[in-house]
Amino acid sequence: LGNAMAASRCFQKVLELEPDNSQAQQELKNAESILEFERLAEISFEKRDFRMVVFCMDRALEPASACHRFKVLKAECLALLGRYPEAQSVASDILRMDSTNGDALYVRGLCLYYEDCIDKAVQFFVQALRMAPDHEKARLACR
């Protein structure tokens, strides 16, 4: 689910109780690698290196395949790279599982905005704000 910090703590506790548990050792390594990819993605996003963010999120999604937060970040960066069909596909997959995900609605709107479908984009931004009234990016995009 993408909560690598909590997972890491749990696996450390398992290893305190069973130091030879090879599965817990492997899962602890997976959790630590996810934390590292999250850290790299955050730094890369700040530098506007969206390709690196997509790379990091792809790696983080290997062990944490159900994490919507990672998928949304990947989709947003794909949109910012101009890879709209891929971004929309990722966002649509999330919305199929959770139609109220404000971040995925924002990404759909972002793609439509960049594809010059302003009216549809605004509808998605407004819908994102209905689902998450404090969604700052959707608020800015609406303006």
TrEMBL record:
<dbReference type="InterPro" id="IPR019734">
    <property type="entry name" value="TPR_rpt"/>
</dbReference>
<keyword id="KW-0677">Repeat</keyword>
<dbReference type="Pfam" id="PF13181">
    <property type="entry name" value="TPR_8"/>
</dbReference>
<dbReference type="InterPro" id="IPR011990">
    <property type="entry name" value="TPR-like_helical_dom_sf"/>
</dbReference>
<keyword id="KW-0802">TPR repeat</keyword>
<feature type="repeat" description="TPR">
    <location>
        <begin position="102"/>
        <end position="135"/>
    </location>
</feature>
<protein>
    <submittedName>
        <fullName>DnaJ (Hsp40) homolog, subfamily C, member 7</fullName>
    </submittedName>
</protein>
